[in-house]
Each structure stands twice: as C-alpha cells, then as structure tokens.
Amino acid sequence: MVVIVILGILVTLFARNVFDLLFTSQVDLAQTKVKTLADSVGLYHTQNRRFPKSLEELTEKNERGAQIEREIPKDPWGNEYELRKGDRPNEYEVVSAGPDGVFDNEDDITSTPKKDK
C-alpha cells in the first residue's frame, strides 16, 4: 500500500512538471513564430514596397514564382495569427491570442515589446 501511495505521489509530481514544460514550450513556440512572421512581413515590404493587407499575402507567389511563406500556420492552441497595423505608417505587429484564444488581453503574444501603461 505504501509503495502505491509513493508511486502516486511521484506520478503526480512528474505529470505537473510535464504539463508546466508543455505550456512553457507552447508559449515559446508562439513567441518565435510571431517574430518570424513579423520578419516575413518586413521582407514582403522590402520586395513589394508596401505592407501586406493580411498574412495570407505572404504565401502568394511573386512574378518570379517565389513566395515568402509556404503557409501561415495556426498558433500552438489552434488559432489564427493576426497582422495589425501600428500607429505609424511603417509599424505593424503579428499577434497570437495566446492560450485562452481571445485577443486583446494579458496573455496575447506579440511581435512587438509590451509597453508599460
């Protein structure tokens, strides 16, 4: 009986650590992808002298048959990334809604640094 209790405690501790690592890796993956997509938007701007209206434009082939992104993936939680214009003409950001899937709250993951309010 004692062995079963000890095994139960060990499994509980192990499972909690695994879930914590899984959550952390999902956030890290989303942070990496929003920055990569933002870099792709910048490259699109350089090549086309304008910003794309949506992230989907990054997948369109140019006159040479090249495209910047093969496809736009969903974030680790299965939601679409969003391209947003900034306050100035050359500002933009790529945003993931984060784990809760709702935009414009504290768990959003963005390609721009968070500003202190």
Domain count: the total is 1
Mean pLDDT: 87
Q: How many β strands by DSSP?
A: 3
The percentage helix is 40-55%
Major beta sheet, specifics? 3 strands, antiparallel
CATH fold-level name: Glycoprotein, Type 4 Pilin
Question: What is the radius of gyration computed over CA atoms, rounded to a whole number of angstroms?
Answer: 20 Å
* Head-to-tail CA distance between termini: 55 Å
What is the approximate shape? elongated
Structural class: mainly alpha
Physical arrangement of strands within the biggest beta sheet: 1-2-3
* CATH architectural arrangement: 2-Layer Sandwich
Low-confidence stretches: none
CATH superfamily, by name, is: Glycoprotein, Type 4 Pilin
CATH C-level: Alpha Beta
Order of helices and strands: HEEE
Question: How large is the count of helical segments?
Answer: 1
Structure description:
This protein is mainly alpha-helical and 117 residues long. The protein has one domain (2-103): Glycoprotein, Type 4 Pilin (2-Layer Sandwich), CATH 3.30.700.10. 40% of the residues lie in helices and 9% in strands. The protein is built from one helix and three strands. It has a three-stranded antiparallel β-sheet, covered by helices on one side. It is elongated and about 70 Å long.
